[in-house]
Fold DUF4249 domain-containing protein.
Amino acid sequence: MKPVRMLLPLILLLPLVWVAGCLPDPLAVTGLPALKPQIVVSSQIIPDQSLVILLTKTFGALDASEDSDPEALLEQIAVSDATVTVTGPDGTYTLRSVGLGLYGGIVIPFEEGKSYELHVTSEALGEVSAVTTVKRKVRFESISANLYFNGFDDTLAQVTYSLRDSAERNWYMLNTQPIRLGEWQDNLLNPRSFTRLLDDTTFNGTVFTETFRGFRDDYRTGDTLAVSLANISEDYYNFIKLRLDNRYSFTEFLSEPVNYPSNVQGGKGFFNLYVPDVRFFILQ
């Protein structure tokens, strides 16, 4: 098994998959007056320091079902009329709309440990804002991935990796995602991703190594697997931990319960600034 170093189309796709984790919840409407939709924020830095922001809106439970068309639903909930800025120590940057609620297209010189403010203004939905700090990037010390047959007619992807933990408290998120070009809407809205959360309580300041498997997919020889590692905030760790049980079907993947934590003032979701270490493998 060998990492694939130059897969530009996949690198461009991955931010869509990562930011999709904060798509909004079908809000219950039975017996209640219609609620005004709120903006839901998701964000991801990619390795060249471009920032991708996904803006969607909350929607009613009757507006989507298991049979909903993914692309049509995204078009329905995408916020496309917004002005989006990010302000940091070096000034204010205006992001460009690239369609389907995605904003980006510019390089921002993010500095580790510095704070940045996101501001969104939508004529239809109003204003939201959020402040976050750029997290220290953590890299894999070593990593490999291969196919694993579990004896029950399932072929899984198995990942073995190590990371070097620093002395302060840290929270980590690992993601695996099979990538299939030509199926970007399915990758975005109904992903076959697997997320693993770690805190360093039991390995603080040491090199941590483990092997894990169990991704919900039937892999084949030649499939491409993306594996990412990120150093995240404790608040975002808790946010994702609450979400993990709600990502097994299409409508559940679109969930954003109203009682989930958020750092977005006036809206929902999470504004994050962490740079993942991403590795690609062709499974053998």
About this structure: Residues 140-239 form a domain with the Immunoglobulin-like fold (CATH 2.60.40). The radius of gyration is 19 Å. The mean pLDDT is 79. The chain has two domains: 8-135+254-275, 140-239.
